[in-house]
Amino acid sequence: MHVEHSRVFDDQKVIHSLSKTTKHLENLKWNVGYVAFKLLINESFYPNRIIHFDFKGAPPKISYLKEVLRLIKRSGATGILLEWEDTFPFNGILADNRNSDAYTVEEVHDLLKTAKSLKLEVIPLVPTFGHLEWILKVERFRQYRQNDMFPQVICLADNDGVSIVLEAIRQVVQFHLPFGIKYFHIGADEAFQFGECLKDRQWLEANKGQEKDSLAAMHLAKVSNYVKTLIPNVRVLAWHDMIKSFESKLIDQYRLDQLLEIVVWDYSETLQQQNDFTWHSLAAKFPVVWGSSAYKGANEPSSEFLDLEHYFRNNKAWITHRNIYGSLFRTFRGLIITGWQRYDHFAVLCELLPVGLPSAILNLLVAKAGDKFSTESIISATSAALNCTSKISMEYMNSFDSCNFPGVELFTAIRSLRDYIKAIKNEVFESHQVKGWLSRFNVRHGYTQLWYLMELENNIEMYTQEMLNMAKMIESLMEPIFRRHTIDEWLYEYVDPTIERLMELSQQISQLKMRRTFTVRNFDIRRRMHYAL
Asked: Which part of the chain is the Glycoside hydrolase family 20 catalytic domain (predicted)?
């Protein structure tokens, strides 16, 4: 496979492949689409258009991130949401929980300085309720879990445990503050259990008549007030899913409507969790709301490639709901377009940032257009923003091969890998020959028709070599963007299983080829286990 030279990222420039640059100069007419698009925008529809970066998996090198920031700024982003998790350069009590590939102080400073120079609002996100696996997974902090089996939710009534969360906030705030913090996100989603740990149960026993939600409301108020003591005039954001069911009297008791701005997240194509009742119910409790869509990482937990049409439909659905229900609130603050890298701390990697970048740009342009968008103008504008030499299509992802954006070579290679693995599954793993003459029965009992396997053997050798070449190519394309651990993890999850299966089939054929005589039927089947009936 022909591969053009990958980009080299630095502070000054990006070295593009010569052929792509030449084609771009010859096709500047595509920029006309962007000019026309400028006449069809409504930037007041979403005053804040925020792109989310999830660093709890595959944290990119700062040099690459800086290129991405420049691109999203040009495409209409007003800010970024940074979810550092264990990649922040924590010290003190949290130092041992820091990722071995955590960013250095100098790298974080460089990124924040770049964002400030681009006039991008930076919103730090520190989980404070659920999704605390990065803290609670270790023995030292195990005692602060809600449930010993699940290191996800902090014991809310345990002041020592909560103080660790507050310390994480303090360190992140201290670093971000010189660059300005207008908004701070405290997470608070998907806390699947609380009120279960000993101190929570003791609190509920001592406060007769109080429900579990009172514990959660008390905790969120405590965290929000702490953030406000650190940052004058800050607005505190929180995901809506754990808060939406709180009774109005509980919200009033803890002043949550004054302390928090609620972020409603829904990544489905029809916003299936939101309806007339949920919007009116939320508007009766909270005067300010944000929406949250997705550009990647919210379709399947193990997606190696992008389903662009899914995310486009999701962002279109948000425009519909914003149109219908936005006026229920005093302020609809904006849209956070999320790009998850893992579903949670323990999950596998999903779409890498270079793979999701076209979706981020396309859906940023959707948000910028607001209620004035049209699909045709969005496609033209995205083609221009990504420096494409021909018009892109959401249906045909190979149309993005003509584009020239940061990481496009890796995007193209992973798309090709996906298609190649599909071909291998169809032509080898699910083939007539493997299913009929190389099944577990055939292999275990040495019983097969070699004629069919000889026909298959050459194909397996060819596919194995092609996969090895593709793995080497993808590895080289990842190196300018990611660190070694990310590269190894991604290849292990998405490339190695196919290579290993091909090699296993090859070895099985080699063993079966040695057979010249076969047992007369019937014979004992060598079952490894017997099931009790």
From this structure: 97-269
